[in-house]
Each structure stands twice: as structure tokens, then as C-alpha cells.
Amino acid sequence: MAKVETLPNVIIKTVDSFQDHRGQLFTLWEKSDFDFLNFNHDKVAISYKNVLRGLHTDKSWKLITCIYGSIQLVVANIDKNSADYLNHIDIIINSDEKNKTFVLVPPGFVNGHLVLSDEAVFYYKWCYEGEYPDINNQFSVNWADPKLGINWLSVNPILSDRDKKTQLL
Predict the structure, then answer these.
(1) Which residues of the chain have a pLDDT value below 50?
(2) Distance from chain centroid for Cα 103
(3) For the segment 24-48, what is each residue's pLDDT rounded down to a tens digit?
(4) CA-CA 20 to 30 A from 157: which of 20, 72, 73, 107?
């Protein structure tokens, strides 16, 4: 459908970092910011330029950021019963910026990221109930699905075998 500035239930938060001659210091999250969530799992993906991971969804919340490098992050609503069905946000998260950007993605929304820098560290906090929700518990959408109309900043990204085989909506 369309790129939009906001999506219901998707929270984009920016925080300042402290910077001096030694580097940067910032807070990723505080319980008081998201006290309705019970984060219980952290994940890190280190990827190289032009790697695209996604679009995947889970039945849980994710707090996403890029702690090193630069990524294009896309979050899309794939709930057929929603007025925002197929709308997506598309933002650049760059670790060199003084203001750090974090995105809270609700359950049922797909997300994916494309690495824009030579290397990037993609980080997310996850909250889910029960057993670890492995690949078999996820739903994926093809990264180039024309129904979503995402303007990825690469026409030929590096994909996993899983993401190459993902079906269109």
C-alpha cells in the first residue's frame, strides 16, 4: 500500500546520548518506559553491507535498534482487519547520530532491515510467553512484495535462503 509516517501501536522513541572524546553512552531501555512488557530475550545480528533480513513477524513485542552502523528499518501492518493494512513505516537508524532511535514493534507486524553501512549491529529485545518462538512459529512476507510497495535502498540485496523463498501476500 503506502509508506506512512506512523502506524498505530508502533512506538518510535529517540533518546540523547552522552558523547565525549571516549565515545558514546546511552540507555537502550528502562522498565518504566515499557512497563506493560516483560522482556525476556535479547538478540543481536551482525551483518554486512547490503544484507536484508526479513520481513518476519512474531506473536510478541520487539524493541529494535541499530547499535553500530546504519540500517533501513521497515515495519508493516499485515493485519487484514486493520484500517492500516499493508501500510508501512520506513526509517533509517544510524548509530552515529547523537539522538538514538528505538522502535517498539507490536505482535503481528512484519519487520525487516537492510544494512546500509559496511557492517551493522542490529539489536532487539523480545518478550514472549512460553517456549522460544523459532522460525516455525514466525510468519514471513517476501521483502519485495508489490502489495507493500517498500522502497528498499537496494535492488539486489543479500538474502538468506529462507528470505529468498518467502511467498508474496
Answers:
(1) none
(2) 7
(3) 887 888 888 888 888 888 899 999 9
(4) 107
Left, alpha or beta for 54 (phi > 0: left; psi -120 to 50: alpha)? Answer: left
Amino acid at 98: K
Phi, psi of 166 (to 5 degrees): -65, 140
Write the DSSP string, the chain: --B-S--TT-EEEEEE-EEETTEEE-----GGGGTT----EEEEEEEETTBEEEEEE-SSEEEEEEEESEEEEEEEE--TTSTTTT-EEEEEEETTSSEEEEEEEPTTEEEEEEE-SSEEEEEEEEE-SSS---GGG-EE--TT-TTT----S-SS-B--HHHHHPPP-
pLDDT in tens, 70-80: 999 999 999 99
Q: Which domains does the chain have, with CATH numbers?
A: 11-20+35-154 (2.60.120.10)
Short-list 155, 71, 63, CA closest to 113: 71
pLDDT, position 66? 96
